[in-house]
């Protein structure tokens, strides 16, 4: 049975952890799907991990659609969600509807993720969910705001923690089907998780979220520097280097 957004809420109630990973192309998506990953996120982190940009800001909607379409072609079971990239949804509600709509129509994804829980974003997300576009929220450290926030942990002061709790509740009310909590204190993530009916998916937010997400390139050892909260499960950099050095040796022989 393919994963649906309503399944996710059931899983939260049953305390069945929701496993999420990012993908950026067809072969990675196919492997994650066959391994039984629940949500495959075409995260705009691919701008950094797959395309070599210094932040997520430069990637365009066209480029994200291109990657999301490839991921969708590789997935049969998982729920495929794609990030809307920086400035493809913040300008106006109609810009967001257009970008999200293109993602569903042209890339074949089942949902979109938008960063932020401030009032204008709540309004945008309400409109998207109203017209039937499934939306995943994302608060805490929001990398599209890196020039304002840096990559620092969020929600550390009582007032910032309170703001994040209120944003989470507003996002649930706006109709998001799940909420990513990035790099916030574990006790704050636990509080938010408790208050919501929809599942929380944590990244650097402790163990008490309803699910966890990591950047696949980080856990496979493909990035130069993974964040401290990303456990590295394989060293593909080493595996690939060994393989290509071997190939080079074979081609060059013993000259
Ligand atoms: O872009 C991304 O990979 C993400 C996840 C880490 C949540 O937004
Ligand atoms: Na992202």
UniProtKB/TrEMBL annotation:
Pathway: Cofactor biosynthesis; (R)-pantothenate biosynthesis; (R)-pantoate from 3-methyl-2-oxobutanoate: step 1/2. It is an enzyme of class 2 (transferase). It is found in: Cytoplasm. Its EC number is 2.1.2.11. Keywords: Cytoplasm, Magnesium, Metal-binding, Methyltransferase, Pantothenate biosynthesis, Transferase. Its cofactor is Mg(2+). Pfam families: Pantoate_transf. The active site is at 182 (proton acceptor). Mg(2+) binds at residues 44, 83, 115. One of its GO terms (molecular function) is methyltransferase activity. Homodecamer; pentamer of dimers. It catalyses: (6R)-5,10-methylene-5,6,7,8-tetrahydrofolate + 3-methyl-2-oxobutanoate + H2O = 2-dehydropantoate + (6S)-5,6,7,8-tetrahydrofolate. One of its GO terms (cellular component) is cytoplasm. The gene is panB. This is 3-methyl-2-oxobutanoate hydroxymethyltransferase. Catalyzes the reversible reaction in which hydroxymethyl group from 5,10-methylenetetrahydrofolate is transferred onto alpha-ketoisovalerate to form ketopantoate. NCBIfam families: panB, PRK00311.1. Binds 1 Mg(2+) ion per subunit. 3-methyl-2-oxobutanoate binds at residues 44-45, 83, 113. InterPro entries: Pantoate_hydroxy_MeTrfase, Pyrv/PenolPyrv_kinase-like_dom, Pyrv_kinase-like_dom_sf.
